[in-house]
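The instructor's notes for this session suggest beginning with a concrete chain rather than abstract definitions. Hand out the sequence below and ask the class to guess, before any prediction is shown, which regions might be ordered.
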Amino acid sequence: MLRQLEYLVALAREQHFARAAAACFVSQPSLSAGIRKLEAELGVPVIRRGNRYQGLTPEGEHVLVWAHRVLAEREALVQELASLRGELTGTLRLGAIPTALTVTSLLSAPFCERHPDAKVSLESLSSRDISRRLADFEIDAALTYLDDDALRDMHRLPLYEERYVLLTPSDGPYGARAEVRWSQAAALPLCLLAPRMRNRRILDENFAADGAHAAPAVESDTVAGLYAHLATGRWSSVISHSWLHMFGTPPGMRVVRLAGPARGPRVGLAVVAQNPQPPMVRALLAVAREVGVRDALDALLHTHLD
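After discussion, reveal the predicted structure:
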């Protein structure tokens, strides 16, 4: 039945018979036959019949939840047996919100160094997708904001707090300042992340707390897109200090401290609360507790401020 459960998970994910079959490396007739066999064994219909995929039945939705759980337990068993031999094999499936992607190498690099037979698969995901995919066992762990209510039942390991600074042209009005207020930063030509992103909503709250409203000339849904515009020297931005780890300070720009009580939310690892945890997750948590992400990012920030 395990193979049939894999077919069902792939079909629910791909929403298309041909794509699901390709993902499982079987023909479409083989996948359809496997789904019918699953229905016969369980005695319930799991998909809505039609010329095309039309979704799961209510019974199918319940079966899908168990399918994710059973397949995750199967993978955990394989990893546990490998760990008994002193090995860690398989793939760590790691999700990260876009604003935390720059930090993932601080975890993945020492993880791979410690476990050379393991691989890492990294995806950029929204906070909503992270909570859903963790619950469905589609990813093993996620680097995300830990104050998300959807993570209430998850095990959470804090790694750092976002600290916000102004990245501005050296020859601009605040290029020679050691510190500026949020309201002063709001008056600059700005490039910020898009309003639908959590980071932007946090920044808007901080601007408002200082009696200001930011009206950026450029908005991007990726940190890379934001930095591409900053490199022109035409705009300033309020950035998280964690982005300095990957992108640094573009030529002709300076990092300036922002005055005020505003502090960013905690960022860390979220995993499904299980006992025992799968070996892959245990190994990642062990690395995360030892590498000192907060200290590394704070030291980097002080270097750029100095």
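Then share the key points. The chain has a mean pLDDT of 89. The first helix runs from residue 2 to 14.
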